[in-house]
Amino acid sequence: MLRCAEAGADIVDVAVDSMSGMTSQPSMGALVASLAGTPLDTGLKLPHISDYSAYWEQTRTLYAPFECTTTMKSGNADVYLNEIPGGQYTNLQFQAYSLGLEKQFEAIKKAYAEANILLGDIIKVTPSSKVVGDLAQFMVQNQLSARDVEDRAEELSFPSS
Question: In what residue span(s) does the Pyruvate carboxyltransferase domain sit (predicted)?
């Protein structure tokens, strides 16, 4: 984000500190603090960001059961391999647990990349990211490779999504 700002970007995508990291955007407070006093100073006040973050930190506790922190303890770069959007990542993990596939989540993430290619390397936003996720879980649940899906497409009973 710093390099984007240095290259002339007017806007970068960040998240309030308490909602940042993991599968989300980088910390707003960290970016504001790192640019303070430079020619790229945002003009935002760090104490205001901290107050705002504190509010959302409390609110976030209500959603704790749905977060991916059960298995994910830090951000990782595998998004460059599987292209799972942040919101879909947490949903996909929750769905995997619901289907009894929690121990196969690494395989589901790899299948997500394959399913995306099978579906035409689509733009992944809601609901298209869910379609890719559903196909990935279907592939893992039924022990299907991308080649199996292509070869047996006429006989498979795909997820309704």
Answer: 1-50
